Amino acid sequence: VMSILLHGDAAFAGQGVVYETFHLSDLPSYTTNGTIHVVVNNQIGFTTDPRMARSSPYPTDVARVVNAPIFHVNADDPEAVMYVCSVAAEWRNTFNKDVVVDLVCYRRRGHNEMDEPMFTQPLMYKQIHKQVPVLKKYADKLIADGTVTLQEFEEEIAKYDRICEEAYTRSKDNKILHIKHWLDSPWPGFFNVDGEPKSMSCPPTGISEDLLTHIGNVASSVPVKDFKIHAGLSRILRARLEMTKNRVVDWALAEYMAFGSFLKEGIHVRLSGQDVERGTF
């Protein structure tokens, strides 16, 4: 599996989750063995110029914190884009590290149906309106080179339009929304065959006092004989054993017993996050 993340330029520079994800990218137990980040860089956020949105020259500079290679490519040149994407995929598969493809392009229309970009970026949008769309630009080049004929190009466009039109027509016939078709993994315990949620019922989760005492004793002991542990830890373990004897629990022991009861049933428990390794909480 190769993970691909698609970003906008303003989001790539401005969203903290991007920086955080890069710092997770090579951690044991968290790594995806390399993610390909594709930045659709239309050089404008919603209405914000880059100079008002970030302090670095490129939106992709945040990827430099992990020394990820960053390819800036002119999106008006499809063959260059294909080449760069092939190199990015090869990099990821060879080195299992993140890589960034910065598609330098433009947004022809507004941010959404209500947005008129000429209000805030009149000079930029005068230039954009003069641009020949990339499809026409590339088609003209291929026709001039003799790679395809005008007729072949028009047939390909008509074929694609037909696929879209047929899908649109079919969508009008769908009267029932099938939830289960949209689930990555249909959970049989939660949904019936029609994709509707089943009524939720919770089985009893109580366990016997003998089992709780056993878990408490194990949680208070050191697994290896004659193992010298920190005096402060010994004090914590003694206090835990004392609580178990007195049939008392605090939050930490209660949590320990909950995890222990899962483990006794053969259910794998994975802890992650700060301080879990030393059992602070």
TrEMBL record:
One of its GO terms (molecular function) is oxoglutarate dehydrogenase (succinyl-transferring) activity. Keywords: Oxidoreductase, Thiamine pyrophosphate, Transit peptide. The keyword Amino-acid biosynthesis does not apply. The keyword tRNA processing does not apply. One of its GO terms (biological process) is tricarboxylic acid cycle. Residues 2-179 form the Dehydrogenase E1 component domain. GO terms for cellular component: mitochondrion; oxoglutarate dehydrogenase complex. Pfam families: E1_dh. It comes from the Eukaryota. Its cofactor is thiamine diphosphate. InterPro entries: 2oxoglutarate_DH_E1 (IPR011603), DH_E1 (IPR001017), THDP-binding (IPR029061). Gene3D superfamilies: 3.40.50.12470, 3.40.50.970. Coiled coil: none annotated. Belongs to the alpha-ketoglutarate dehydrogenase family. This is OGDHL protein. It comes from Aegotheles bennettii. The lineage of its organism: Eukaryota, Metazoa, Chordata, Craniata, Vertebrata. The gene is Ogdhl.
